[in-house]
Amino acid sequence: MENFTPVSSLIGGLMIGLAAAGLLLCTGQVAGISGIVAGVLRPVKNDVAWRVWFIAGMLAGGIALRLYLPHAFTFTLARSAGAIALAGLLVGFGTRLGNGCTSGHGVCGVSRLSPRSITATLTFIAAGAAVVYIVNHWFGGYV
Amino acid sequence: MKRLATAFVSGCVFALGLGISGMTQPSKVVGFLDFFGHWDPSLAFVMIGANAFYFIAWRLIVRRPAPLFSPRFVVPWRTAIDRPLLAGAAIFGAGWGLGGFCPGPAIASLASGSGTVILFVLAMVAGMYLHVLIVYPLGDTRAAQHGDLAVPAGDS
Predict the structure, then answer these.
(1) In a domain, A45, yes or no
(2) Which one of A7, B13, B80, B122 is most buried, counting C-beta atoms within 10 A?
(3) Inter-chain contact A19–B10, Cβ cutoff 8 Å?
(4) Are B24 and A72 within 8 A, CB to CB?
């Protein structure tokens, strides 16, 4: 528990909830990042611009983090390029097949008490925990 | 115009929240998923914060007849707990545990210019296209027509 950051994590979490609520109030959209990205890759008429601006906002926020909180981008995992590429493929494919990720299911869906999103969230946490167990305990933390 | 500006601000606050919460550091995500090692419960606090806010906000906001700058609310229409949901969530979770990134933090982290993040996002986009190639031809016509998770509430 040496890296436990309850206060900043709670504050950041509230900001994520605020951002998602703001998007719902102003545009009527659910803040599911994988869905927002996928909607740009496979555009539907009149449903692209807000997605592009949301993603641009995320990049602007990322630039602000880089300037004022560079520690936010610390990468200390021991992962090969092949593992990162495989992880990205699985995340992209899985979030589309399951219609959501940590934000769409884990935040917006769980808050609506959607049984579908609660099931998805428990499933991806369990699958993630299984992979982390295998990586850390069978492969010594490096894949 | 206001719709796009608010989408931009929302994306910005979302990314700042991810960064401040620690979720743009894959080691914190993997630390949370490491239930049988040096467990780091931080991610649970992120979820508590985000869900507490959105739980209340959702109930207040959807009482309105319409959003502020858009004609209607667009809400998820699927309710079935089916095989694609379970398989998709399991595949996503496996990738999440392997790389320590989910889509939000990966997109926000592009600003770092890190080659690791760029590789992850390119692979993630490839995975999304792979889904289009494999699953849409199998006949999920409603998803093929509407693109992604949500359709206008009145249509469902």
Answers:
(1) no
(2) B13
(3) yes
(4) yes
CB B49 within 8 A of CB A13: yes
B12 found inside a domain? yes
Please give the pLDDT value at position B155.
33
Q: What are phi and psi of B90, to 5 degrees?
A: -65, -40
pLDDT digits 0-9 by tens, B8-30: 999 999 999 999 999 999 999 99
Using CA atoms, how far apart are residues A10 and B44, in angstroms rounded to an integer? 9
Contact in structure between A109 and A118 (CB atoms under 8 Å) = yes
The two structure tokens encoding residue B28 = 């914190």
Nearest to A53 among B4, B70, B116 (CB): B4
Question: Residue with structure tokens 């914060």?
Answer: B49
The answer to the question of residue B113 being in a domain is: yes
Q: Is B2 on the interface with A (CB under 8 A)?
A: yes
Establish if B118 touches chain A: CB-CB under 8 angstroms: no
Q: Does B74 touch chain A (CB under 8 A)?
A: yes
Name the pairing type of β-strands B150-152 and B74-76: antiparallel
Distance CA B55, CA B117 (A): 31
- Count of structural domains within chain B: 1
**Number of domains within chain A:** 1
Q: Supply the pTM of this predicted model.
A: 0.93
Alpha-carbon gap, residue B102 to A17, rounded angstroms: 17
- Is residue A60 assigned to a domain? no
Q: Cα(A138)–Cα(A132) distance, rounded to whole angstroms? A: 10
* Cα–Cα distance for residue pair B53/A23, rounded to 1 Å: 13
The pLDDT tens digits for A57-70 are 999 999 999 999 99
Distances in Å between the alpha carbon of A56 and those of A29, A30, A52, B21, B117? 16, 17, 6, 20, 16
A83 and B99: CB-CB below 8 Å? yes
